[in-house]
Amino acid sequence: SKLLETIEGRLSNLPAVTDVFSTVGAGAEGRVTVATILVKMLPKAQRQLGQRDVMLHIKHLLAEVRHVQK
To answer: How far, in Å, CA of 57 to CA of 48, rounded?
Structure first.
């Protein structure tokens, strides 16, 4: 979907992020309105921010995207 592409693009542009993997409708319920996004980061020694700081940054970044629920 366009929304998921937007989110993936924003996450991929973060300096600490190396890979983004997403699925839609996974799990026993198969809800096609729910997406799961996994983010792989650079090793700790190669990035300036800690994991919690990156997660907080992503949380704020996604808050700017319409239709995203936590």
So the answer is: 13
Tens of pLDDT, residue by residue over 8-43, are 999 999 999 999 999 888 776 777 778 889 999 999
Cα separations (Å) of 40 from 33, 48, 67?
23, 15, 23
Residues, the chain, total?
70
Residue 45 backbone phi and psi in degrees, to 5: -70, -15
Instruction: Classify each residue of 14-53 as buried b or exposed e, where b means 16 or more C-beta atoms within 10 Å of its C-beta.
Output: bebbeebebeeeeeeeeeeeebeeebebeeeeebebeeee
